[in-house]
Amino acid sequence: DTGVSQDPRHKITKRGQNVTFRCDPISEHNRLYWYRQTLGQGPEFLTYFQNEAQLEKSRLLSDRFSAERPKGSFSTLEIQRTEQGDSAMYLCASSSRDNRFGATIYFGEGSWLTVV
Amino acid sequence: KQEVTQIPAALSVPEGENLVLNCSFTDSAIYNLQWFRQDPGKGLTSLLLIQSSQREQTSGRLNASLDKSSGRSTLYIAASQPGDSATYLCAHTGANSKLTFGKGITLSVRP
Questions:
Q1: Residue B1 — pLDDT band, cuts 50, 70, 90?
Q2: Is the pLDDT reported for residue B44 higher than 70?
């Protein structure tokens, strides 16, 4: 159990560029979540997967955002045509079962995005 | 909109003090409530999880309680230490399995 791994940890990009973040969950965790956190705020839900199926997407996830989990293992979050408002920390988390019923949810260290 | 409120936003206490962090929420249909710790620039670490049918959970010097009917939870930290300095966030899980977080309380424990 090596924990949830996120890459890159930091990304500075120019407005209008595309960026992609990768998340490797704890092995055998079938649920994977993406959250976004800005300074001084709590994390906000973006989307989550059960295996390869994307079960829910927040309204925060505009058309410029897309997330995939092609084989039910790692996941990618892509932001197209970045805007300054996209600057935030993008957090990935995983759990072995439905967290409604008490499963511990494990967060990665986050990927910081700065759009200049 | 379901909300989670944590007041105050920041707290500074001397080492050794017992302290209580408060969390209030508006969603009456939560499945559970969790307390997380976040160190600056880092991810979140789950501290305690209380299912809606439970009243409290304990781990070491930490004790969390849940009063679902009044929409309140507290995190009690006994004999605080400088290493407890961090941001503490509460979050509840709703019917759609997503966590709804408060903004957190930034705790500073002075040596």
A1: low
A2: yes
Q: Give the pLDDT mean for B66-79.
A: 96
Q: How far apart are CA B43 and CA B58, in angstroms?
A: 22
Size of interface A-B (CB pairs under 8 A): 66
pLDDT at B2: 67
Tell me how many degrees the CA angle B61-B63-B66 measures, rounded to the nearest 5: 170
Considering chain B, what is the average pLDDT of its residues? 94
Beta-carbon separation of B31 and A44 below 8 A: no
Helix, strand, coil: what percent of chain A each, to 5? 5, 50, 45
Cβ distance A35 to B99 less than 8 Å, yes or no, reads: yes
Give the closest of B42, B89, B93 to A109, CB-based.
B42
User: Considering only alpha carbons, which residue of chain A is nearest residue B54?
Assistant: A102
pLDDT given for residue B95 in this prediction: 81
DSSP B83: G
HEC string of A77-101?
EEECCCCHHHCEEEEEEEECCCHHH
Distances (CA, A) of A83 to A12, A17, A96: 12, 9, 34
Average pLDDT of every residue of chain A: 94
Residue A101: what pLDDT? 84
Tokens 């004790």, located at residue: B63
Q: Give the CA distances from residue B42 to residues A82, A109, B46, B51, in Å, rounded to whole numbers and listed in that order.
A: 23, 5, 13, 26
Q: Quick check: B13 and B110 in contact, CB under 8 A?
A: yes
- For residues B27-43, give the mean pLDDT: 92
